[in-house]
Amino acid sequence: MTTDTADDPRPTFARALDQAGRQVAAVGPDELGNRTPCADYDVRALLGHVVAVLHKLARVGVGEDARGIPDVIGGIADDGWASAFTRARSEVDRVWADDERLDRMVQLPWATLPGRTALDVYTHEFTVHSWDLAHATRRLAGLDPDLAEQALDAFSKLAPPEDRSERGPFSAVVTASDDADVYTRLAAYLGRRP
């Protein structure tokens, strides 16, 4: 079975992972303790989170339960994050190369969705976390604005302000200036304070 490229989330997902991978690779050991705009995460914890998400996506892609994988993976050497991300990403790429996985239902820790929808949602998560890392390490230049536009559009449907609570992953919308770039508007929409 061949997937219609117009309905295939993998190319955009790959762009989001490429961007995240560049941010991960740029982090130096002296930046691991920097605070990020993502609540409760310093750079080390956020790196542990993005690697954990990749492990979860690989596991659900083959029909296994991902709930046993922690939200933040630890135990990675200070200079080992880029290789940990690359290895986990290679596994995700291998698992999700199969077109049939796109239409299978996958059990995520927070929902059961078709594979293509799950990849689309995680495209936007990796886009936001790329900005989180870029903000925390002062490497904002070069982020893909098209990914942020898509994420802002998706999150306006997935996480409307009226559906948020204090215990959810997104805080109340923060006001952004009218001339703010798209990543600043995205961060503000998700409750981060850019």
Automatic annotation (TrEMBL):
SUPFAM superfamilies for this protein: DinB/YfiT-like putative metalloenzymes (SSF109854)
Record domain Mycothiol-dependent maleylpyruvate isomerase metal-binding: where: 14-134
Organism: Murinocardiopsis flavida
Protein name: Uncharacterized protein (TIGR03086 family)
One Gene Ontology MF term: metal ion binding
